[in-house]
Design brief:
single chain; 134 residues; mainly alpha
């Protein structure tokens, strides 16, 4: 089963990486930057402040920051070392020969994947049932 999932992972990666379209290369590079997300975080903060007030918004911000910190650290400290999966662009990975690297950019670990899920939490905290949050 693990080998099957690894084959699917490799196929999907090579499909998207092999597209090598200038637009998508720039688009993906843009969204991997840290500062591009500041307007989104500011918008979330404004919405929280307007809908829940300063005290509740502060609690939400602290809870979200704690959740991001915990997920980042869990991934970096426990999951990544246990899995030991090499990044596709790692020169020691046999897949690196098939990997197209744009502007010498070699991605790091994907701890950011959990963040879109976390952005859904404030809504789910005030839902009348768990089904409303999904």
């Amino acid at each position: 089963m693990l080998e099957f999932l690894n084959q699917i992972d490799t196929s999907v990666f090579l499909f998207f990486n092999g597209m090598h379209t200038p637009f998508l290369d720039r688009f993906m590079m843009l969204f991997t930057g840290r500062f591009i997300w500041i307007p989104m975080y500011a918008a979330i903060l404004i919405v929280l402040l307007r809908t829940h007030g300063v005290k509740s918004a502060g609690i939400y911000v602290l809870a979200i920051a704690l959740a991001i910190t915990l997920t980042d650290q869990t991934c970096a400290t426990f999951i990544r070392p246990m899995v030991e999966r090499m990044r596709p662009s790692n020169l020691e990975n046999p897949l690196s020969a098939l990997t197209i690297v744009v502007d010498d950019y070699r991605a790091t670990g994907s701890r950011h994947v959990i963040r879109p899920t976390l952005s859904r939490w404030p809504h789910s905290w005030h839902s009348s049932s768990h089904a409303d949050a999904c």
